[in-house]
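Worked problem 6 (solution included).
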Amino acid sequence: MNRKKKINETLKRKAKKRNEKRNPKKKEKYISKADRENLVPEEPVYGAEANDGKPDNVKDQKATDAD
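Solution. The predicted structure is:
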């Protein structure tokens, strides 16, 4: 019984590998919530909170004055 069982297991394992090669998974790899937050860049703020085109700090002021 054990010999038959072992042969069947190896045959099933090989068949499973062949099927996986023929039909690759179409589903995307799972990305955890924490990783998704790191991948998404922060969106710029629009509206009343925007800086109205004025430079925020001294470095930006010097760059705009030089232009």
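Discussion: The longest helix spans residues 2-22.
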